[in-house]
Specification:
Helices cover about 30% and strands about 25% of the residues. It is an alpha+beta fold. It folds into 2 domains: about 1-65, no CATH class; about 80-120, no CATH class. A hairpin with a 2-residue loop joins β1 (about 30-40) and β2. The termini are far apart.
Length: about 120
């Protein structure tokens, strides 16, 4: 998966925060095989696999967490809540909040919430 540059309305490139947010949302995996050989004889071999992702993304892709991880913390429970992207600003918001109250980031209001706010004639 290649990262693609994004631009906002002003035409400036994304900020570091946007890049980090995207990496944590999508995840980043680095695989490396390093060997040291002399005259065709392998002396040293190192295999490295590193993953960088949010808890939510890691859990979604089935990555294992270290033993002793406390799954009962508030942060872990929040990560397990189903989230959707806001149609206006593309920030991830819990589905229930997005439908019932709208987006806390940009103020987008769902059709369900708009219908509830509309005064009946």
């Amino acid at each position: 998966m290649a990262l693609e540059a994004t631009r906002d309305d002003g035409g400036s490139s994304g900020t570091l925060v946007d890049v980090i947010d995207r990496i944590l949302d999508k995840g980043l995996v680095i695989n490396a095989d390093i060997t040291v050989s002399v005259a065709g004889v392998e002396l040293l071999g190192v295999k490295i696999r590193a993953a960088l992702a949010s808890f939510e993304t890691a859990a979604k892709y089935g990555l294992e967490f270290p033993s002793g991880t406390n799954y009962e913390t508030a942060a872990w429970k929040e990560a397990m809540v189903g989230k959707e992207e806001c149609p206006q600003c593309n920030k991830r918001v819990p589905v229930e909040e997005l439908i019932s109250t709208g987006c806390p980031w940009c103020g987008w209001i769902s059709a369900t919430k708009a219908k509830a706010l509309k005064p009946e004639a």
